[in-house]
Design goal:
Elements: H1 9-16, H2 38-53, H3 64-68, H4 72-87, H5 101-123, H6 125-147, H7 155-175, H8 186-197, H9 210-227, H10 247-273, H11 285-310, H12 312-319, H13 321-333, H14 340-363
Length: 365
Amino acid sequence: MLAVNASISEIVFLSNSSNGTCPNATGGGGTALFGWSTTIWGFIMAAVSILMFGSFMIPFKFGSLKKSGFDPMVMQVFMNLTIGLTSLLVLSYREFYWSYFGILSGALWMITNMMAIVAIQNAGISIAQGVWSGTTIIVSFVWGAAIFGEEAKSLALALVSLGVLAVGITGISISGTNLLAKKKDEYDILADEIDAYDDNYKPPEKPLSTKTILFGILVASLLGIPNGSVYAPIHYITSTEDITVPYIVSFGLGLLIVTPVFAIPYFAYFHFVKKTPIDWNLKVLPLRAVMAGTMWNIGNWASLYALSYLGYTVGFPLSQCALLLGGVWGIFLFKEITGARRIGLYSISCIVLIGGAVMLGIYGK
């Protein structure tokens, strides 16, 4: 889930580029809907994917869910059901396509999303998304260069690009810890000043501890492995037709198939072993999960067309702007990163990360 999210659609493009089934690799020049050029539609689709991938986790970050929390598997069940069903909408204008690899992709994505929830709950959306975006890009490059045998335009510069990505990931990680904080940070100073004049003052929720954030960063780092591998199985499909968009149906159905495989043992463990009831939170969680699943699938669908119409060199770097949008939400809406030095390091690190992605898009394919 590239937002999550380097988008998993980049993996589709990388995988297909070596077996002749990739979409328009050089970008658009023809006409599409309403007579608009494919280039215009490419930028429109890129904007849609950025908005959706950068925002799809927001429904779980506000209101009662933020205060009380939620069971990640319950969320996963509702979200996967939404993605599986909305994937079938592709059949309204494309022929049905089925591949058993869709089941594998669905399983990898489910693991990815479960890890994303843990990462966001522990590190926040800004830090978690920044870290997993970088590691996802690195893993996808490894799939293409080391496993699929795709030749890089310049291996040396591609490796430099990976180094730049690593620097960006490190900076984002540090910005989420207390390493840049003073002995008494802004939160404590403000609380002390207000408390001195108002005995009834109740301070806001204390920021997450460094230990908690570091655990979230670790999970986000490891998340790049399944996330960067979600659509790698498509490389082994031998069809001579463009199956990138139709594969969405196989992926959605595969997700519906694997969800019970993960969910039933999980619920059984809590019911029979831990004797702990599962809180389904039916008043709030299903609607939020439907919103998130719909947003993610719209982003996934749009990103495929952005890559098809704009080509990898333009479409791939554009997709990374979802990272910046996620950071904006995290900083200004959820106050996950505070202080000028932390926000400054985070912003610079995001630019470095996107710069590495642009370099990899140019020299790594």
